[in-house]
Amino acid sequence: MIFAIITFQKVTAQIKAEDFGFRHFQYFIEGDSIDVLVKSKIGDENKKKPIFFSVQGSLGVPLIIHNGKQRVKYSTLEEGLVEDDYHLIIVNKPGIPLISHKDSLSNRGEYYDNKSKKIYPKEYVNKNYLEYYVKRNISVIELLLKENWVDSSKIIVSGHSQGSGIAAKMADNLSKITHLIYSSGLPYYSTILAMLHKERMMEEDEENPYVEKTIDYWKNVVKNPYQINNEDGWDSNMTMYSFSKSQNELLKRLKIPILISYGTKDESSPYQDLFRIETINEGSENIEFKVYVGLDHNYQFKSEKIDSNKKTDYLKTVIGEWLKWLKEN
Predict the structure, then answer these.
(1) Residue 2 within a domain
(2) Which of 226, 245, 264 corresponds to the end of one domain?
(3) Is residue 263 located within the same domain as residue 309?
């Protein structure tokens, strides 16, 4: 792979990544400007440690969202929980600002060129597909391995939701990756099947009309898999097609330790159980499953006894078990 000029520089905006405890690397790779944030334990910034590369899920969301004074949302599950043992690495989405005020974003934290019409930046639409992220992230890892504070003997890649597919493909393409955490993913026709199951879960006596709309959308995706479009709130065909490829065979052929983590209230749960049955039948010994009863896609639980809108966050417990698994494998 050919790299263009590589530099390290600070953000010049009034609010900087460093203000929130990050080191900010800006790499220029094959014409792309890529923002990489590193979160380390205070005082351990230059201490040699393995890297924990966290791959975010879908949505064009800035890595740092603030209210003018402080951050209001974390962009990755692991931040604040893994830095004792690892340097946490997160990479910004293409065409999305690294830092944004919450008032400039949608309710879900998405950045749009046109907020009222929900139009993403053109660069994001053009590059928001699995193969781009895999190639870009591997390039970032290769560059980080040149840093003297990186212990290359152990490289963990963790992907959550749609990011799980990226993480799995990274592990398949880069032999230097030693451990894979596949969180709230779906090994079979990933994104499209998750969308359908979510709509089915909303059905009661009558069919949810969005089920057939989703099927029609998928028909168009299969007919035009490389079309780059952003219409009617749907992902582009290229995005959906790339993120809906089955990954069960890819996961099975990996020989590194793999942790598959999911909550039973997540839409992926039945398919994760199916994959678990398959791995037992086939005698896979490198794949371990962590199942969280009653937790949803992001490891939260709705407590109906107290407040139907209140959710309890179990991330500390979940990530703690991931770290225990990493020490044992």
Answers:
(1) no
(2) 245
(3) yes
Q: What is the pLDDT of residues 18-39, one digit of tens each?
A: 999 999 999 998 888 999 999 9
Q: Which domain holds residue 30?
A: 17-188+246-328
How far is Cα 81 from Cα 153, in angstroms, rounded to an integer? Answer: 21
CA geometry: angle at 205 spanning 199 and 208, to 5°?
25
Domain check: are 241 and 252 in the same one? no
pTM of the model: 0.91
- 287 & 223 share domain: no
For residue range 120-179, list pLDDT tens digits in order: 899 999 999 999 999 999 999 999 999 999 999 999 999 999 999 999 999 999 999 999
Structural domain includes residue 11: no
Per the domain annotation, does 215 fall within a domain? yes
Q: Do 250 and 234 have their domain in common? A: no
